[in-house]
Amino acid sequence: MKEKDFDELRERIDAIDEMIVGLLNRRMECSLAIGELKRLKVRRFLDPARERAVLKRVEELNKGPLDGHHLLSIYQEIVDVSRAIQEGNARETSPEAAKICVSIAKQTMEEVIAEAGKWTSKGFMVEWRADYTKKPDPARFVGSVSGPHLVTLRSRDQGGRFGGSVQEMVGFLAEALNCGAHFVDVEESIGQKTVSVLLKKNPRAKVVLSKHFTRSTPPWETLKAQALEMAGWGAQVVKIAARVKGPEDNLAILSLIPLLKQKGVEPVCLGMGHQGRLSRIACPLLGGLFTFGAASAGEETAEGQLAASELLKMLRVFSQFHP
Questions:
Q1: E strands, the chain, where?
Q2: Is 210 helix (H, G, I), strand (E, B) or coil?
Q3: Quick count: other Cβ atoms within 10 Å of Cβ 274?
Q4: Which of 144, 214, 269, 318 is an S-S bond match for 113, by CB 3.0 to 4.6 Å?
Q5: What's the pLDDT at 44?
Q6: Which listed CATH number (1.20.59.10, 1.10.10.250, 3.90.640.10, 3.40.50.300) goes with 3-93?
């Protein structure tokens, strides 16, 4: 073989490689589109029957000189990578992630904004627990976080760290709304009149009206009356959380979800404490607007709160069996 022939063959290989790379990327684009359809229809990404059919068809198409075993090894890798890309893309755009509000409890605004950006880029909602931040700046937060977010200034009476007056709390939340916050958490304890004034000044405000029973879950009739009263205050979302001491408490709390939805209000109904974890998983599965997760183990802002990454895994599993 002449040196010229050698160079020409290498050029042909380079040209073929260029075609192969282009075709592989076109194939991956199709795989991504199929993965998105699987995600929307809540189907498993692993489809053994389809993968076997692909490999069998490739084997039948092979005319050589490539050995069938080697060809199948190459295509098995292509199939594996296709599935991995589907799963990886789903992790970033998961519909289950959008149902999880990650609570961020950082001391500085720089840390808050960085953490919020990390989670919203993955499709999660975030809650800024401003009562944990030394110098909370709602204008800076709203201006820096483009993804869905909730601003919360939880009082000590309701399990938070804010020790200021009601007027200071309302002023802070009003500023957040004026800056364009997606949601703000307003505690029921400030009273219907104050909530009405806040909503009147911000007619397009998205308010999460919240009530926390920190000691125990009250009797059903008390819980029901509380939910119905809050549903009439004009807020778009009603959040009720109660300490769980037994399975019946979880059932009572979750039973508020259809009750509130019948009143045209979006519900968030959760149990507090270790025994309340079941309700944190079940809430979005049963029609709740979202649930709350911690940024990581050890960063919980409520007792019984699960890490968002673990919560996401559980929601994905149960979503497969949920209509």
A1: 100-104, 125-129, 149-152, 183-187, 207-213, 237-243, 266-272, 291-294
A2: strand
A3: 9
A4: 144
A5: 65
A6: 1.20.59.10
| 3-state SS, residue 103 | strand
Q: What is the pTM of this model?
A: 0.70
C-beta of residue 239 within 8 angstroms of C-beta of residue 208: yes
pLDDT digits (tens, 9 = 90+) for 241-291: 999 999 999 999 999 999 999 999 999 999 999 999 999 999 999 999 999
CATH homologous superfamily for the domain 97-319: Aldolase class I (3.20.20.70)
Longest pairwise C-alpha distance within the chain: 94
Low-confidence ranges of the chain (pLDDT < 70): 1-2, 36, 39-46, 87-94, 203-205, 322-323
Q: What's the rounded Cα separation, in Å, for the pair 27 and 20?
A: 10
Residues contacting 273, CB < 8 A, separation 6+? 243, 244, 245, 303, 304
DSSP 253-313: HHTHHHHHHHTT-EEEEEEESGGGHHHHHHHHHTT-S-EEEESSTT--SSTTPPBHHHHHH
